[in-house]
Amino acid sequence: MKRLIARLWRIIRGPMQWRILWLAHSKFMAGITGVVRDDAGRVLLLRHRMWPEGRQWGLPTGYARAGEDFGETVVREVREETGLMVKPGALVQLTSGYKLRIEVAYEAQLVGGELKIGTFEILEARWFSPDELPDGIQESHRRLILRDTTI
Predict the structure, then answer these.
(1) Is the Cβ–Cβ distance between 47 and 53 less than 8 Å?
(2) Measuring CA to CA, which residue among 33, 56, 34, 57 is closest to residue 132?
(3) pLDDT for 24-37, tens place per residue?
(4) Helices (H) and strands (E) in the chain, counts
(5) What's the CA gap between 125 and 46, in Å, rounded?
(6) For residue range 58-75, what is the model confidence (pLDDT) as tens digits?
């Protein structure tokens, strides 16, 4: 039976193989988060309008567009939400997330721009010292900010 399946797989090649694989596997959205820091080591946090009351503070986040480099998603999302320019750094998280979402997080360094709220979804944007994070921050984002970066 295994030989027959292998032979059929080789025969169907190309687009048909991709269709079968697409139907047989989970489809994921890529949720991208940026741990944006300035030269003083402070971290950029946003108060998100659409997040649950009491847990609205978090890092800049968004979804990758098809074919978009995830580091560039961080750059785009931060610019769209705050007007700031950042340079993506090290990948700090890559996990399967809630339901069919991949969670990706990058360190990012502030390189310029002027802080201004640019979208309906953001209520407030502020810089915080990692040891003085606000109440109401997403716990997963707290862990990203406070993780040991010496490893």
Answers:
(1) no
(2) 57
(3) 877 778 999 999 99
(4) 4, 7
(5) 4
(6) 999 999 998 899 999 999
